[in-house]
Design brief:
27% of the residues lie in helices and 8% in strands. It is of the alpha+beta class. The longest helix has 14 residues, at 34-47.
């Protein structure tokens, strides 16, 4: 794409339900609120790629593995 293509692009907004729960204590995907799970799944669809992991905080144990990277 060129700068000109971007200049004529029209943004597409999509609104998703949010959540108010603290997710920093989640250790599995199922620990997340349903709306957070739906958000992650929608991002996978929009990106065209499955996510292997997501972070719910800065610490190592706050990384949720969605799919194993190893066969």
């Amino acid at each position: 794409m060129s700068q000109n293509d971007f200049n004529h692009a029209t943004p597409v907004y999509e609104y998703l339900e949010g959540w108010t729960e603290d997710i920093t204590g989640a250790r599995t995907f199922d620990d997340l609120p349903a709306t957070a799970q739906a958000y992650v799944r929608r991002l996978e669809v929009l990106s065209g790629a499955p996510f292997a992991s997501i972070g719910v905080g800065p610490d190592r144990e706050q990384t949720l593995e969605l799919r194993s990277l190893l066969p």
